[in-house]
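Lab notebook, bench 4. The sequencing result for the construct came back, and we need a structural model before the next group meeting so we can plan mutations. Quick request posted to the team channel:

Model the 3D structure of this chain.
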Amino acid sequence: MEQTMRLVSLLFLLSFTITGATAVGVSWGTAASNLLPPEKVVSEILLANSVTRVKLSDADPSVLQSLSGSDVRVTVGIKNEMLRELSGSKKNAASWVHDNVTRYLGKNGGAAGGVRIEYIAIGDEPFHLNYNQQYQPFVIGAMSNIYSALKFAKLSDQIKLVVPVSSDAYQTESNLPSKAHFRSDINKTMIELLSFLSNHSSPFVLDLNPFSSFQQSKNLSLDFHLFELKSRPLIDSHNKYFNYFDLSIDSLVTCLDKLGFGDMEIMVGKIGWPTDGALNATSAIAQIFMKGLINHLKEKNGTPLRPKRNTPIDTYLFSLLDEDKLNIKNGNYERHNGIFTFDGQAKYNVDLGQGSKSLNNVHEVDYLALKWCVLNNNKYNNDNLSNNNISDFISKACLDSDCSALSTGGSCSTIGWPGNVSYVFNNYYQANGQDPASCDFGRLGLITTVDPSVGDCRFNVGLQVAGSDWLLERVVLFWRVVLVSASVFLLIR
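Done. Here's the predicted structure in token form:
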């Protein structure tokens, strides 16, 4: 199996070099109540579809272990919540590098036989407006300490540090790139960040949210965001912009140039289109967007401000799988950005490296029993309960499970009563591993073996995780990391 995985990766890398195609990867997050075993994701999605780059949201031990020997280039993420402790302690930074980087590398620190770690992402959009500068003070300190730890481990030339920056870090007038500038509240930090990136030959990572832009922009059409040729161009002096992507890249180029870093390389760390949870969030539109994006990248024409230049150097599609626990700071649709459903089935086709072939799905998925939790309508009517009782149950259930498909424009937004209540009950039930107690809801829940799905509104069945070998392995890996961390701390103390 290992030899097959290496052969698939090697063949694609060779074709990648020959064709000179733009480097495209995918973001892989694990903020979900139902997770596929990582080894199946690697073998049946990444390698089977010739994906050569992956950007991880964190440093999950089981995910990193599954990537070992695959030759997939990896960006390891550090969560925002960790930035304070990494900024305040070089020991913590050294421990993090040991536990999440060094131990996964191959012999002599190389990728052979280990994980091919290319970048470490410091935080996840830590300058986002919704965070109210909560993480901003710790970004530079965390980056500096992680770099020192890499240097001590003789890995600083091999692994680069980056910071994913959301597009709300800059502002423009009338969407004109020439008028773009970084927000005043982060300008000082941005100068420090750019100096660090420049000194260490690291790219600037820009996260783009075209769907949010479409929702908020009054003068940029849907066609403009979807790379449609019929879209009306935006004129900025002598430059014409025919799509949101080039517009965003050149807005950043202007920002960089104003601070004296106009030649810095740019990487797009996140871009995609949702398939549910809002109006115009559908699989059909997502496929149009992705096809337009991939074709645009393959043309390698650059942008008006960087013509015929390979900008961006890499682009990561957001995201690999749906994540029903993802932070929805921008909107409910963010939990439906996956190219694949939570159980590894492609929602639409896009060229991830497999060319004209259809995407390979995960096979032999280990589902829970074919059971669903629905509202016992007879019980509700007989007990003469008020709508307030149901509302309380819905509110509590939606706090611990995903109800975003019920949002306006979502796939379940029109199913009405009692289907919408049953949808909430079932999601909570599946998220809790079909525990009978999670389908109680004041005895209003009813477990059924009849699939209550209606049209496009899918009532999911969860994945078999609890009690599995994968879960046991995950727990064992966690405690190994804890023990090793304690040992390293004692040694460097």
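Confidence is low (pLDDT under 50) at residues 1-21, 466-493.
Will bring this to the meeting.
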